Amino acid sequence: VSGLDPAQPYFQGTPIEVRLDKSDAEFVDVIHTDSAPTIPNLGFGMRPAIGHLDFYPNGGEEMPGCDKNPISQIVDLDGIWEGTRDFIACNHLRSYKYYSDSIIYPDGFLGYPCPSYNLFKDGTCFPCPEDGCPTMGHYADRFKDKVKTEFTKLYLNTREAKDFPLWRYKVSVTLSGKSKVKGYVNVALYGTDGNTKQHQITEGTLKPDNTYTAYIDAEVNVGEVTKVKFLWNNNWINPTLPKLGAATITVEVGQNR
């Protein structure tokens, strides 16, 4: 059984006979997309973990792309009917949109086991454990024989609109140069299956020999990394023409570590 943001009002906190529960099937996976409290936040979805695998994309409360203004949301690419539904219950309805996208992307929507969304965001739960990460949606049941704990909470990020999946990488850049400068560092990844856009690794004071690390959610699965593009910019004209390079760039893939 796949629960697509199971209802919170009248169901949260009720006995297991009344609501969806892991005892309802051999394998129960759940996508939580609107789990903020009903009062005062009007969350339609259930917050507690209730299945064998519980996925909380973007933290499970506010979905990217759901904060558009009402006019642009209602006159949506998907038409006025879909746009109106999204305006009323955008977070809630993201669950089935992620699910339908997951059918097309069997390697997308990797869920990282983690105690909280904040820890996931700062990289504490990266990379995947030894036995890998399950994928949210249609292919979650490929993981059913690996479920060990009582409840498994899984976190991931998605894009604002179709196509929704993102692929997470850890990128570390060690700088080379003669003097520290202010500015930012961007990196793009190139691989056998595609290239990413530029992602910012750090901003502020850039010191040679220092290593800067960021977790980037890329819009493509690049496959095997073949090259990286390094770009830095000091934001304003500096008469001393400082030079800065990358001594090393390390890329770690979430799934295969």
UniProtKB/TrEMBL annotation:
Keyword Manganese, does the record have it? no
Q: Which SUPFAM superfamilies match?
A: alpha/beta-Hydrolases, Lipase/lipooxygenase domain (PLAT/LH2 domain)
One of its GO biological process terms is:
lipid catabolic process
Would the keyword Secreted be found if you checked this record's keyword annotation? yes
Question: InterPro entries per the record?
Answer: AB_hydrolase_fold (IPR029058), Lipase (IPR013818), PLAT/LH2_dom (IPR001024), PLAT/LH2_dom_sf (IPR036392), TAG_lipase (IPR000734)
The record's subcellular location field reads: Cell projection, Neuron projection; Secreted; Zymogen granule membrane
In this entry, which stretches build a coiled coil? none
| One GO cellular component term noted in the UniProt record for this chain | extracellular space
Pathway(s) per entry: Glycolipid metabolism; Glycerolipid metabolism; triacylglycerol degradation
Name the reaction it catalyses: 1,2-dioctanoyl-3-O-[alpha-D-galactosyl-(1->6)-beta-D-galactosyl]-sn-glycerol + H2O = octanoyl-3-O-[alpha-D-galactosyl-(1->6)-beta-D-galactosyl]-sn-glycerol + octanoate + H(+); 1,2-didodecanoyl-3-O-[alpha-D-galactosyl-(1->6)-beta-D-galactosyl]-sn-glycerol + H2O = dodecanoyl-3-O-[alpha-D-galactosyl-(1->6)-beta-D-galactosyl]-sn-glycerol + dodecanoate + H(+); di-(9Z)-octadecenoylglycerol + H2O = (9Z-octadecenoyl)-glycerol + (9Z)-octadecenoate + H(+); long chain 1,2-diacyl-3-O-[alpha-D-galactosyl-(1->6)-beta-D-galactosyl]-sn-glycerol + H2O = long chain acyl-3-O-[alpha-D-galactosyl-(1->6)-beta-D-galactosyl]-sn-glycerol + a fatty acid + H(+)
Task: Name the Gene Ontology molecular function terms of this record.
Answer: galactolipase activity; lipoprotein lipase activity
Q: Which Pfam families match?
A: Lipase, PLAT
Q: Which residues form the PLAT domain?
A: 167-257
- Could you name the domain of life of the organism this protein comes from? Eukaryota
List UniProt keywords, sorted A-Z: Cell projection, Cytoplasmic vesicle, Disulfide bond, Hydrolase, Lipid degradation, Lipid metabolism, Secreted
Specify the protein's topology with respect to the membrane. Peripheral membrane protein
Q: What is its EC number?
A: 3.1.1.26
Show the PANTHER family listed in the entry: LIPASE (PTHR11610), PANCREATIC LIPASE-RELATED PROTEIN 2 (PTHR11610:SF165)
- What family does the database annotate? Belongs to the AB hydrolase superfamily. Lipase family.
Entry protein name: Pancreatic lipase-related protein 2
Organism of derivation: Molothrus ater (Brown-headed cowbird)
**Taxonomic lineage from the root:** Eukaryota, Metazoa, Chordata, Craniata, Vertebrata
